[in-house]
Amino acid sequence: MGFDLILATPNCTALLQPMDQNLIQNIKVSYRKGLLNYIISHDDGNVVLQNFNTKNAITDLDRAWKSITEKLVPVAISAGGRRC
Known about the structure:
Layout: H1 13-40, H2 45-50, H3 54-66, H4 72-79
């Protein structure tokens, strides 16, 4: 799995943020899906949420991040529109 490093000119963050938002949105959707599946797979959702801790959240976020495939990155870049 290889990546190309693109060095952006200074002050072009605003131009790239739509790309960031696309990737962040995909991670959020994956995280929420995993959390809901976790809650549904247990009998009592209230007890599960009371026992949910920071370690669980970080583990789930790591799983969501790893669910982002190489195919989503070019889509996010093209959704970002302009380049610097």
